[in-house]
Amino acid sequence: MELVAGCYEQVLLGFATRPGQSWTIVPDFTHHAHSASLSAVAVNNRYVVTGSRDETIQIYDMKKKIEHGALLQHNGTITCLEFYGTAHLLSGAEDGLICIWNTKRWECLKSIKAHKGQVTSLSIHPSGKLALSVGTDKTLRTWNLVEGRLAFIKNLKQSEFSSLNPNKVELDSFIFCVKKS
């Protein structure tokens, strides 16, 4: 198992874990990923993607331990990244956009103006057909990913909510906490 962390110093860190009687963490790689601090990290079975204040998403190939490329679609800090299996990646940023990426060709399939302010968090339903997003516009939005359109908006009454933390996911529903920042 690999433990991956991004840091303020623009570096992606990887540690191999060796479970046994006690967990041992062994440094595996470091990668200077960005020109500004890292703000989001997502992992699937092959890639680690990092978002940054430099407005880019960097792709790191975990199998080959090399940089794979960069995604340039947002105008603002990348605030959240979420893989759906091995085929798709969703990204959100300060520009209010949610981008849906094809991870085979690493191209943007759709760019959605999701929030009036920044997108602060994303969560994808296990079916891959729906996603939730929270923004600084104080809304929780449900997205139909099949059609690439908004399905529902819920205005949030609290002063500001920043993230969706999936605690438990069932096959047909979301169960999540909304964390007050």
TrEMBL record:
The record's subcellular locations are: Nucleus, Nucleolus
Which segments carry the WD repeats?
Answer: 31-63, 71-111, 112-153
Q: Which domain of life is it from?
A: Eukaryota
Cleaved signal peptide residues: none
Any Pfam family hit: WD40
Keywords carried by this UniProt record: Kinase, Nucleus, Repeat, Ribosome biogenesis, Signal transduction inhibitor, Transferase, WD repeat
- Tell me the SUPFAM superfamilies matching this sequence: WD40 repeat-like
Do the record's keywords include Nucleus? yes
Q: Which Gene Ontology BP annotations are present? A: negative regulation of signal transduction; ribosome biogenesis
The Gene Ontology terms for molecular function here are: kinase activity
Q: Name one GO cellular component term.
A: nucleolus
Q: What is its main location?
A: nucleus
Summarizing the function annotation, the protein's role is:
Negatively regulates the PAK1 kinase. PAK1 is a member of the PAK kinase family, which has been shown to play a positive role in the regulation of signaling pathways involving MAPK8 and RELA. PAK1 exists as an inactive homodimer, which is activated by binding of small GTPases such as CDC42 to an N-terminal regulatory domain. PAK1IP1 also binds to the N-terminus of PAK1, and inhibits the specific activation of PAK1 by CDC42. May be involved in ribosomal large subunit assembly.
User: What protein am I looking at?
Assistant: P21-activated protein kinase-interacting protein 1
Q: What species was this sequence derived from?
A: Lepidothrix coronata (blue-crowned manakin)
Q: What is the lineage of its organism?
A: Eukaryota, Metazoa, Chordata, Craniata, Vertebrata
